[in-house]
């Protein structure tokens, strides 16, 4: 049965999020609000938690999982970033963008894309999630909370509770999210001098990145 944490969207209570961070450190799977929609998250280095997250979301190892990082310096530990890529990242973080980059050896092989050795990375712009990342002390592995055989992410924490409380260890309720997916940009072509590739246009403005 999932623990339920009601936090203020603008002034999240550290006491509650400390309890949520402990759950994650023990291998828990949680639903948390981001600056685009609710997501499922778990600890990066826990194989059992990662396998469970995939089962709950019903996706296989070809589905790109995303690393939620606190800032660009943390992101650079998990992805190879050149100067051109870094300038683009700086324009889009924090914010509703997911960037696909070449994974470093710090990323466990089981969570990077099996054929391309890439990883999606994101620096969210949501106070409660930023505080949770800080209290957790490391990036979280995430996937958008879209139920199996559906196309829209869940946005109502009460609905998430009704449908998933027996599968999850915790739910952070900070109210509704914008309910628009992140803009996904593949930066790996930039490593060979090509332009970045827009994989999905979402909430993040392409004009803000000069694309």
Descriptive overview:
- Helix 1 (14-25) packs across helix 5 (127-136).
- The protein has one domain: DHBP synthase, CATH 3.90.870.10.
- Strands 1, 2, 3, 4, 5, 6, 7, 8, 9, 10 and 11 form an 11-stranded mixed beta sheet that branches.
- The model has no long low-confidence stretch (mean pLDDT 90).
- The chain has 6 helices and 11 strands.
- A hairpin with a 4-residue loop joins strand 2 and strand 3.
- The chain is α/β, with parallel strands linked by helices.
Features:
single chain; alpha/beta; DHBP synthase; 11-stranded mixed sheet; 11 strands; 23% strand
Shape from CA axes?
globular
Rounded radius of gyration (Å): 16 Å
- What's the rounded overall pLDDT mean? 90
* Helix count from the secondary structure assignment: 6
CATH architecture: Alpha-Beta Complex
Order of helices and strands: EHEEHEHEHEEHEHEEE
Low-confidence stretches: none
CATH topology: DHBP synthase
Question: What portion of residues belong to β-strands?
Answer: 15-25%
Mind telling me the CATH class?
Alpha Beta
Task: Record the SSE blueprint.
Blueprint: E1 3-6, H1 14-25, E2 30-33, E3 38-43, H2 47-57, E4 66-68, H3 72-75, E5 79-80, H4 83-92, E6 97-103, E7 118-122, H5 127-136, E8 140-144, H6 157-164, E9 170-173, E10 183-186, E11 197-200
Parallel strand pairs: 1-9, 2-9, 4-7, 6-10
Antiparallel strand pairs: 2-3, 3-8, 4-8, 5-6, 6-7, 10-11
Helix pairs in contact: 1-5
